[in-house]
C-alpha cells in the first residue's frame, strides 16, 4: 500500500504543473442548493479545492483559503470547495457554518466531480482555473503560499478574452 501511495504521489506530482488543459465539465450543487457547472464559472479565476473535514492538511489550509478568497473576490476570484463523497454531509455543513466559509461549498455526494477532475481520491487537491476555463496549475497537498499567491495574481491580471 505504501509503495502504491508513493507511486501515485510521484505520478501526480509530474502533472502538478500542467497548464493549457481545459477544466472538465462538472455539475455542482452548493450547500445552499444552488446548482451550476464548470462553464458557468468562465470569466472568473477559480480555485476548485477538493477537501474533507477529516483531512488535517485541508483544515490547516482553510484559513489561507478564506484569506485568499476575501482578498481577491472583488477582482474576479472565486473558490469552490468540493467536499469528498466520503465526508459525512452533516460534518461539512457544521464545519462550513462554524468556520463561516465565505465561498461556495459543494458536496460531491456521488463522487462525480472528483471523477471528472482526474478521479481525485485523496485530499487536498486544488485546481487553479483561468478566465477561459483552462487549468493553470494543480496543487497537491501542501503548497508554497507565496508561489500560489504569485500565480493567482498573474492569472487575475490576464483579461477574460485572450
Summarize the structure.
Helices cover 36% and strands 23% of the residues. By secondary structure, the protein is α/β, with parallel strands linked by helices.
Description:
It is a single chain. The chain has 162 residues and is α/β, with parallel strands linked by helices. The protein has a single domain (2-157), classed as Glutaredoxin (3-Layer(aba) Sandwich). The protein is built from five helices and eight strands. The chain has helices at residues 2-15, 56-72, 89-98, 112-116, 145-157; strands at 21-22, 27-29, 35-37, 45-51, 77-83, 104-107, 125-129, 134-140. Strands 1-8-7-4-5-6 form a six-stranded mixed sheet. A two-stranded antiparallel sheet has the order 2-3. The protein is globular and about 40 Å long. Mean pLDDT is 89; it is low at 1-19.
Radius of gyration, in Å, reads 15 Å
**How far is it from the N-terminal to the C-terminal residue, by CA?**
44 Å
Helix content: 25-40%
User: Might you state the CATH topology name?
Assistant: Glutaredoxin
Oligomer category: single chain
Poorly predicted spans: 1-19
Named at the architecture level, the CATH assignment is 3-Layer(aba) Sandwich
Order of helices and strands: HEEEEHEHEHEEH
Number of helices: 5
Mean pLDDT: 89
Q: Order of strands across the widest beta sheet?
A: 1-8-7-4-5-6
The percent range for strand residues is 15-25%
CATH superfamily caption: Glutaredoxin
Structural class: alpha/beta
CATH C-level class: Alpha Beta
> Number of folding domains?
1
Shape label: globular
Amino acid at each position: 500500500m505504501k509503495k502504491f501511495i508513493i507511486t501515485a504521489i510521484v505520478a501526480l506530482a509530474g502533472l502538478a504543473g500542467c497548464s493549457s488543459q481545459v477544466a472538465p465539465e462538472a455539475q455542482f450543487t452548493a450547500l445552499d442548493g444552488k446548482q451550476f457547472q464548470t462553464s458557468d464559472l468562465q470569466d472568473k479565476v477559480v480555485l476548485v479545492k477538493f477537501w474533507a473535514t477529516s483531512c488535517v492538511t485541508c483544515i490547516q489550509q482553510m484559513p489561507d483559503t478564506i484569506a485568499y478568497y476575501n482578498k481577491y473576490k472583488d477582482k474576479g476570484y472565486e473558490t469552490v470547495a468540493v467536499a469528498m463523497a466520503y465526508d459525512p454531509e452533516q460534518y461539512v455543513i457544521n464545519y462550513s457554518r462554524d468556520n463561516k466559509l465565505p465561498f461556495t461549498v459543494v458536496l460531491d455526494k456521488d463522487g462525480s466531480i472528483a471523477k471528472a477532475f482526474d478521479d481525485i481520491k485523496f485530499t487536498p487537491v486544488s485546481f487553479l482555473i483561468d478566465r477561459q476555463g483552462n487549468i493553470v496549475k494543480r496543487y497537491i497537498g501542501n503548497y508554497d503560499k507565496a508561489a500560489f499567491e504569485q500565480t493567482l495574481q498573474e492569472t487575475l491580471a490576464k483579461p477574460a478574452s485572450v
